[in-house]
Design brief:
By secondary structure, the chain is an alpha+beta fold. Helices cover 46% and strands 10% of the residues.
Length: 626
């Protein structure tokens, strides 16, 4: 490692360095996320002599780094929702040498806010304002109670010193009390006291006069506490740090990943943001965050996507290497992404609208990476002289495109093709799609052929189908499987997954009352087993009105309702007895009908003979009654 441990400094020294912009934050750092309580605990730890871990700095001397990468000031006045972004500091070759904080941002920001800044959070039981409003989010300063310590038995954090963030109004109200329970010292005062080296001078020149002014000269706790807080902030060298002086960006990024102790593991994509941001004309972070928020909050979508997904999709759509490498985010590539960003952003949005139209919900989207090839195809495929993404959600057009894309999508979700490291399959999928952009429809047969006999084989075998039919209500792949089985669903409606024979009928108390089960232990076990009543053979997709009408009504009664507009044929149960007393026969019949439907909807690794289907049915029957 190209660096060494430096001589420890005081907290005041670190605050001075922040004020003089000798300490900055690289773009690879995330937002400040500590709560006001975490800040109080940090100060309590410092007062009690607990270690607060080593910091890591990156000494920036290289003119190229100053020019090519973005750096930010520390957040000095935090306000929940409205002031959470660090101000940008324009550095260039003529800017002075400085240190970028690689590890310790949350702690240093907390120290700064506690000693110099403010922390604003929303008052309880009031509505969020549309803009920053100090009446709703009043700025608070950090105070220390000089009167007495906390009762540790009443404090879950086991703090000894009573640190608290107070508004100006709360502080003034405490002064107005005739017998105040607390005597608050604003932590901002610590840095305003005169400087003294000797502890005797601090006691005589600072502590005693201050306590006399406050009427606390007889309070031993106040005297010890004020002396200690002065000492730990201004005298003790408790900020230990390692100084990394390498000017090689790849080396520093590797160090950052290995040593960051912010609590949440950082991905390499987070670090690459600093490179992309530096080459983007504008605020790339905001562009990505705005798109993420739009897709997440839209009622037409509702999916949560992260920056790394967006970055990888940008690489995919601009024909770059999809792996997260520093070279893929240099100026030329970022410039291309920015040039195409309006179309990329629109394509991503329309793709998630399409996925939602496929019936996939945020909870049932088991692989976001599976969306990327659809994005690429819609972005590159032309239809009527314009990119396909501009018309794919027009329900009067593109029926065949939607049908084949949805079939592929359900299959990859069910097979888990994009699980684990997806870079290789994304690259190879792009190759296949690129070669078939002139085909009339999404090249599903070519994709099947490309991955035959590999670990990404999209074909199904009989064992896989049997396992799929045991999928339980609530599993992520349940919805994808039902939509694959029933592709004729109206894409403009939202469907709910419901039980055909109602779930309530299989309650243990209800089953004990069923006369046909009381003397047949094996049949009772069949009814009780959720692999029968809570799995695909007893589930179906119902639109909103059908779902409301279904509730706990018996299947036969519900289907006879003229307002339901569903027939046994629609449910693949036209030859089944719908009475609850015949549930076992119903289950076996519908399971077999669904299996045959699946065989017609997927690609099989080997054809199923009539004998094998019959054997399968016998095995199911044997398993069911054993």
């Amino acid at each position: 490692m190209a660096g060494e441990y430096e001589k420890a400094i005081t907290i005041k020294d670190s605050i001075d360095a922040i004020n003089q912009r000798d300490y900055l934050l690289p773009a690879i750092q995330r937002k400040f996320v500590w709560s006001s309580h975490q800040i109080c605990v940090l100060f309590d730890s410092i007062m009690r002599g607990y270690p607060i871990n080593t910091f890591m700095m990156w000494e920036i001397k290289d003119d190229g780094i100053k020019n090519d990468y973005k750096f930010y000031e520390f957040l000095k006045s935090y306000c929940q929702r409205f002031s959470e972004e660090n101000p940008h500091v324009p550095t260039n070759a003529s800017y002075k040498d400085f240190r970028a904080v690689i590890d310790g941002q949350q702690r240093l920001t907390s120290l700064y806010i506690g000693l110099c800044g403010t922390y604003a959070y929303k008052k309880p039981r009031v509505w969020w304002p549309s803009t920053r409003d100090d009446r709703v989010l009043p700025p608070r300063k950090l105070y220390l109670d000089l009167k007495a310590p906390l009762e540790s038995e009443d404090d879950e954090s086991l703090m000894y010193y009573n640190f608290r963030f107070l508004t100006d109004r709360q502080y003034k109200d405490s002064l107005a009390s005739e017998a105040p329970a607390h005597h608050w010292l604003c932590m901002h005062e610590i840095l305003r006291y005169p400087n003294h080296v000797s502890s005797d001078d601090v006691l005589l020149e600072v502590v005693i006069p201050e306590l006399e002014r406050r009427g606390l000269n007889a309070n031993a706790f106040a005297r010890k506490t004020l002396l200690k807080v002065y000492d730990v902030i201004r005298s003790q060298r408790i900020i230990h740090y390692f100084n990394e002086n390498s000017q090689q960006i790849d080396h520093v990024l590797d160090v950052f990943i290995r040593t960051n102790s912010g609590g949440t593991k950082l991905d390499f994509s987070d670090l690459l943001m600093s490179i992309a941001v530096a080459h983007w004309n504008g605020d790339f972070r905001k562009e990505l965050d705005d798109l993420t928020q739009h897709i997440h909050q839209s009622t037409e979508m509702g999916f949560y996507i992260e920056r790394d997904w967006l970055l990888k999709t940008c690489l995919m759509l601009t024909e770059a290497d999809v792996r997260f490498k520093v070279r893929n985010f240099k100026g030329e590539q970022v410039a291309r992404i920015q040039q195409e960003w309006p179309d990329i952003k629109e394509c991503i949005t329309e793709t998630f609208r399409l996925v939602r139209r496929f019936g996939i919900t945020p909870q049932s989207l088991t692989s976001r990476n599976a969306v990327i090839p659809i994005c690429y195809y819609l972005y590159k495929k032309c239809s009527g002289g314009e990119p396909l993404f501009r018309k794919i959600n027009n329900l009067a057009k593109c029926h065949e495109h939607r049908a084949v894309i949805s079939q592929w999508f359900y299959m990859v979700l069910l097979k888990g093709v994009f699980g684990g490291q997806a870079d290789s399959i994304l690259s190879s999928m792009r190759d296949v799609l690129e070669k078939h952009l002139t085909d009339n429809a999404f090249p599903l047969p070519a994709i099947i052929e490309r991955y035959k006999a590999t670990n990404k084989d999209l074909r199904f075998d009989e064992e896989t189908l049997d396992k799929l039919l045991e999928t339980q209500h609530g599993e992520g792949r349940c919805r994808a499987l039902l939509h694959l089985l029933f592709p004729e669903m109206n894409v403009s409606e939202i469907f709910h997954i419901d039980h055909l024979h109602p779930r309530a009928a299989f309650d243990k108390k209800m089953l004990k009352r069923a006369s046909l089960l009381t003397d047949d232990e094996q049949l009772m076990e069949f009814y009780r087993d959720p692999v029968h009543w809570n799995a695909i053979p007893n589930l179906h997709l119902l639109n909103h009105s059908q779902n409301l009408s279904k509730k706990d009504r018996p299947l036969k009664e519900w289907l006879s309702d003229p307002n339901v507009h569903l027939t046994p044929r629609d449910l693949l149960i036209e030859n089944a007895d719908l009475e609850f007393t015949s549930f076992k026969a119903f289950y076996l019949a519908r399971r077999e009908a669904l299996k045959q439907r699946l065989i017609s909807r997927v690609y099989m690794s080997a054809p199923l003979s009539a004998e094998s289907v019959a054997d399968s049915e016998d095995e199911d029957l044997q398993e069911a009654v054993s």
